[in-house]
Structure formats: C-alpha cells, structure tokens
Design brief:
Chain lengths: ~230, ~350
Amino acid sequence: MTCHSGGTLEIHIEPLLPTEQLVIVGSTPLARALAALGSALGRHVVVAEPRVTKEDFPTADQIVADLSRARIDARTAIVVAGRGDADEDPVETALATPAGYVGLVASRTRGDVIRDVLARRGVSADRLARLVYPAGLDWGPLADEEIALSILAQIISHRSAREAAAEAAGHQMFEPQSSPREAVDPICDMTVAITPTALRAEYEGTTYYFCGEGCRRRFLADPAAALTAIR
Amino acid sequence: MREVAVELEQWLATGDTVAIATVVRVAGSAPRPLGATLIARAGDRIAGSVSNGCVESAVYEEAMAALKDGRARVVNYGISDEFAFTVGLSCGGEIDVLVEPVGDLHRIALEAVRTERGAVLAHVVAPSDRAGTVAVLREDRVAGWPPELAPVKVHALAALGEGQPRAVPAMLDGREATIFLEVLATPPLLAIVGATHTAQALAPLAKAVGYRVIVADPREALANRERFPLADELLLAWPEAALAKLPFGASSAIVVLTHDPKFDHPALVAALRTEAGYIGAIGSRTTNEQRFAWLRGQGVGDRDIARVHAPIGLDIGAGTAEEIALAILAEVVAVRHGRGGRSLSTGTLAAAR
C-alpha cells in the first residue's frame, strides 16, 4: 500500500489483551492479602468462595460462590489459599480449566497428600504436574503480605516462561498446553525463563542461565567451584 | 498483634472484653508464623488467625474460657494423623498458642502500633502455671517486667532492634522458664528516589506489603499527592538532601527510579553512605555500565558497588509498570529475608518434568 504523499510510515501494532485475571479460593488472611496486592498490580481479581462479602474483599472485582462460576482462560492464575482441610475439590476443578497457573498454598507434605488423593480420583499425571505447591518463592517464614507478593512474582515468572517457550516453538502465544522452558540459575537457584535475551554462559559444553549479571559474574569467576557448591 | 491492631482497637472501644491468642512456638511446617495473633470476643466473633482456620474454632473455645476465668493458658495443637481432620493442623506441623484476656500491657503495645513505633511484648510460655503476658518494652517506655525477668530486657531490646521475635530462657520462682518475645516492629522504610511512572506503581504495592513509603523528587510536577495518594511522605528535595535526612537500617531500602544520571548518580553516592539493607537502581545494562564506571571514577570501591542491585528487581519477565514495580518489591523483600528469590516449588516442577 502506498501513501499519497509518497512517504513511508511504519505502524506499530500493539495487541491490547484482556486484563489478566487472578482467581482466589479461600477467605484466609493470606487470601485477603493476595486480593489486595492483586488489585494493586492491576489484575482482575475474582474471589471464588461461598459466604464471603465485599467487606471481606473490598478490592475484589467479582465474588462468586465457587470456581465453576468463574470464567477462566489461559490468562488466568488460580490460587487455592483455603484453610487446608477442603482444598482437594477446588484444586481438582482448577486443574480441569485452561488456567495458566494453578497454585496451592500448603506445605509440601500437605500438597503431596492432596496430589495423591486427586491421583486416586483419576486426575491424570499431566494435569497434576501443573499444580504448583507450595505456591510462592522460598523466602522462609513470612507475613501474609510477603507470601502474597512472592506468589504474584511466581505467577508472572511462570507466564514469562510459557510465553518464551511458545515463542521459541513458533507457536501462538498463551497456549495452555505448552510447557515452560526454564532453567535454574546455578548461583541463586532461581528459576530463569530461557528467552533469546536471557543471560547465559557456556562451561564445558553446557549452557547455564542466570537471573542477573551479578550471578553470572560470580559463576564466571570460578565455574568449577560454583558448580561444586551446588552439588 | 500488629495484624489485628485495627480490629482490637475498635472492639476495645465498644467496651467489650476481648481475648487474644498468640502463636508462641512453632515446630515443623506451620500455617502461620511465630507471633501470629487472633482476637476473639463473645458472639462468635474473631479477627486475625493463628492457623489459617485449622484450629481456629478450638482456639475460640479456649478464648471464651479465658475470658470467663480470667486466666492465661498455653494450648498445644498438632496432628497425630494426616487424614484425621479433628482439631489439628493439616500441614503436619505443631504450634503452641498462648490464650489470655487482653490487658493493660496489650493496650500499651497497641498504642505503639497506632503511632508507628516499635514494641516488644514478653509472654511467659512455661512453666504453664505462670503463663501470660508479663511485660512490654517500647522505644519510649517499659511496663510490667517483674524483677526476676529483668535479665530478659536486654534480649527484648535486641529483638526490637533486629525486628525478629525469639524465645529466651529465664528463671521464675527458681524454676526454668521460657519467655517468648513478640516483636511489633516499626514498619520498614522504603525510600523511592524519582517520582516516576514506575514509582507510582511501586508506592501502593509497597504500602500493601507494610512498608513506610517515602518518595523523594525535587520536581513538584511529579512528586505530588495526586500522583502519590498513598505515600507516607513526599520529599521535594534533591536525592542527597532527602536521603541524608532519613534513618535507614538493615531492613530499609532505597530504590532509585529516575532514569536520569543527574539524579541517579548523586542518589547512589548518598545511598551508599547509609546503612540501608537494599539499594537498587533502574536502568538498562548500558546505563548500568556507565553508572558503575562513573561511580568507580568517583572513587567508590567494588565492595560498595556490589551493594547496588542493578539491573533492579527479580528477573520474572515483568511487562507492565505494575509488574516491574512488583519485581522490584519482590527483590527488596527477598533480600531483606536473605533469600535470592528461589521458587518454593522448583523441586516440584523439576520432578514433574
């Protein structure tokens, strides 16, 4: 197509995707902290829990009685943050949705139990592998707000990994079945998305990926020692 | 007690008698940290949480009993069978909870929370017949402190300074005792240099995570209440002047977000003069190379340069300004807890692959 003036212009097409959604199951203090932070992050926050009101979750965009009533797409993250005694059902429902992230707030012990219960109920191994528990980053014992922060950081990090994997595979973005391509930073143990711009270093034929320049520098200073330290 | 301070104040104002339950010991994996509190009053009303719900109703019964007989008690909750959802913790952990009526010492601590000052509450956990809250220490006053527990005061001061709760041994009536020191820490300070778009996204997130947020920028067009309705303080000053005024400790953070070397460079020099536990600066790799070269030119040593987190924030692939702000805050909190930000579930994911 030609411009009448004879000049050229480039048009940048930016997709305006729908707001990412955060669906929270539970009414614990952590569930509330997660809703408040999710709203501050600009997420569409849905609480899927019976008997809660706008008073409990003042910033929530929507409150529904249970997960089956929420509209869930691949750009949705579901966090099950209940009291721990009735998490099996919402986790099973969540794993049957196309949600991009399904996290469970529970100890590893309790998470294993829930996974086993669901496996016995016939939930496939593929589906169970999607369940992230304990949800969040390993910062030790924390205040609820800090746990909520770490869960949101993890949700973003998983999304980036999925997008990078989809991009690498030349696929349409946000395909729920694409498994994340991630590496673990050998210095800080953080999960790093393998993107074309990811920081990396070769050592003895293996590529290592890093969360930042600091870790990369530390690795390069003495790769052998760094790798021994983590074994 | 900080987490229930607002409700506690409201309930006490109505003249109700209120009981408070505090997690004073944790073994194994527990749903709530040491010092987590729940308050209860007659009529099935509770606020806060000691177990995210697992044992809350049992704690409520103890609370009502404590209000009736006026006595403090320490109750142990654990789990004998992973599948027996009786009164137990489904995560497999074990907690001790001190349940007692709210008294004057709690009110003194509550006043500290309201005025954003720190306080330490001393609770006797053992022997059980002496259980209860026995003393409070604030920056400006002390109350309680039976003479036998005077040696614990120095531990309370240390706990307040470090913002970390602890259990310490003591002697009561010639018997070995355990005192749990609950810390109501002063909110940690986050100073944002540069009232930019990212700063606007960071301020409300940091407030929601419990930081005292101060935004410093000499440009009034940027640093104003319309743009920063939630900030605790706006300082219309150049970075050096602003940072020199503030009390930074190990739990405080300085985040430089101006994107402009004329602010960034002096801000970093001033930041490195403080004791702040976290210093970070926004910018691309090129910016950082130039920034660090400039700092070296000013005689700043490698040790100091290593204190600056740049590129700033956890590398989570943040997209929007809000997500970048979240990545920054996540790094600030991770560093404060001495963690790099490793995913809790890395093992699980790896095993699943």
